[in-house]
Amino acid sequence: MLTRRAFLRGALAGAASAFAGAAYAFGYGPLQAPRVARYRVAPSNWPKGFALEIAALSDLHACDPWMSIERIDAIVDRMNALRPDVIVLLGDYVAALHHFAAPIPAAQWARALARLRAPLGVHAILGNHDMWDDRKVRRHGGGEVPARIALEDNSIPVYENQAVRLAHGDRSFWLAGLADQYAIPVGRRRWKGLDDLPATLAAVTTDDPVILLAHEPDIFPQVPERVALTLCGHTHGGQVRLFGWAPIVPSRFGNRYVYGHIVEDEKHLVVSGGLGCTGLPVRFGAPPEVLHIRVEAPAA
Question: Which residues contact 53 (CB under 8 A, 6 or more apart)?
Fold first, then answer.
């Protein structure tokens, strides 16, 4: 029989546990040092004898105090220490916590990212917040945003429905960068995308393997088998995830593409948990991270 004393003890223990979880999620969670999420991906159409190492960063959301320049500098050092062949930036560099933080000017965070180093360079796409942050672009339905200008001023190319061929030893591959799928708000919870997947892939003019960079994973069902690997961010891994399930995911597919390495119809997708926060400065069960991915052919 449950006594009054036992009931009170249980209630107090539950309240203490909830308080501790909330304190962690709002205090330490967003500020913890990012982990390195490592993946080995073996697409069926990847050339034999060709190994490529990629480091990826997503959803920086630069702001004080949650993503300060000092913290970005530490993240850059961590990524450089991975010694990848190529580094890709998957969008959403600007702050998304305007009620809880002070945005950092684009020139400052872009200058910090300019210290990233890889033999095949650093390559970027934009995210929805990079577009939403510019009222002029929202009003005119497109245009160059400060995030793009700042990155390119620091010698980091930005791809919007474009592709570039990169040589790695005696092999080559394509990086294809998709413009944002939710770029322009056009009503309550409605957005116009600037993405053009057919045009992006039409820029690929050889049979070399293709790696697609897309901020949101929602494009994945439309990606053809020709693409060896798709890399995305945007979801923050749910930002709050309990036992692998996230109650809120900014994707029309819900938890289907919330996080990690996903294989569908022999197509490979990796979704980063990202670094910063949107909505509230909270992370629980979805720690901040950078990606380190090794791409190679399947074992014989």
Answer: 82, 83, 84, 85, 86, 292, 293, 294, 295
